[in-house]
């Protein structure tokens, strides 16, 4: 791993500051060619409002570490998936009281299938471990999170949805 990659791997996500961008799976590649560093990132979804902040934070970290020219490229394919969140990232989410996502659904190319009446998998409370929680709202602080509540400890918590 080059020094620039080490710097980039320390940059935290502006919306989930307990995670680095690398743990979130947003950083795809870091290449250094002389004075130029090119960082390739993939947003968690194409309309992610934090992308400008993420690019600025990466540039700032690299310039602060003495790298001259920094290029941050955004690629949308393949699309980011919650499966790219590292195991350490999942632990950090749970430690922060945010339920990490389960495995993302595998889809084939073509129309998105619609399944009516299928019960979503149970989500355990990250605070007390109770196995059944309820959705309060389908959207939390960001579109990729939902707000839930545990009937056992009565505590609300956020959950990162599978994408």
Report on the architecture of this protein.
The protein is of the alpha/beta class. Helices cover 20% and strands 21% of the residues. The protein has helices spanning 3-8, 21-24, 51-64, 87-95; strands at residues 27-33, 36-41, 69-74, 98-99, 134-137, 145-149, 156-160. Helix 3 (51-64) links the parallel strand 2 and strand 3. The longest helix has 14 residues, at 51-64. It starts with a helix and ends with a strand. The mean pLDDT is 91.
Distance between the termini: 29 Å
Q: Class by helix and strand content?
A: alpha/beta
Q: Unreliable stretches, pLDDT < 50, 5 or more residues? A: none
Number of strands: 7
Average pLDDT over all residues? 91
- Proportion of beta-strand residues: 15-25%
Order of helices and strands: HHEEHEHEEEE
Task: Work out the helicity level.
Answer: 10-25%
Global Rg = 18 Å
User: Main sheet, how many strands, which sense, barrel?
Assistant: 4 strands, mixed
Shape: globular
Number of helices: 4
**Strand line-up in the sheet with most strands:** 4-7-6-5
């Amino acid at each position: 791993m080059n020094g620039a990659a080490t710097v980039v791997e320390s940059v935290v996500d502006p919306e989930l500051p307990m995670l680095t961008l690398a743990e979130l799976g947003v950083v795809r590649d870091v290449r250094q060619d002389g004075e130029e560093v090119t960082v390739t990132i993939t947003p968690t979804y194409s309309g992610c409002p934090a992308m400008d902040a993420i690019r600025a934070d990466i540039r700032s970290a690299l310039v602060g570490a003495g790298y001259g020219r920094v290029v941050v490229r955004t690629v949308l394919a393949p699309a980011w998936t919650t499966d790219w969140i590292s195991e350490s990232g999942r632990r950090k989410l749970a430690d922060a009281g945010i339920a990490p996502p389960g495995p993302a659904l595998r889809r084939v190319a073509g129309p998105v299938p619609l399944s009516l009446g299928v019960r979503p998998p149970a989500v355990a409370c990250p605070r007390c471990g109770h196995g059944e929680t309820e959705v309060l709202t389908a959207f939390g602080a960001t579109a990729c999170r939902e707000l839930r509540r545990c009937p056992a400890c009565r505590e609300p918590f956020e959950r990162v949805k599978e994408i």
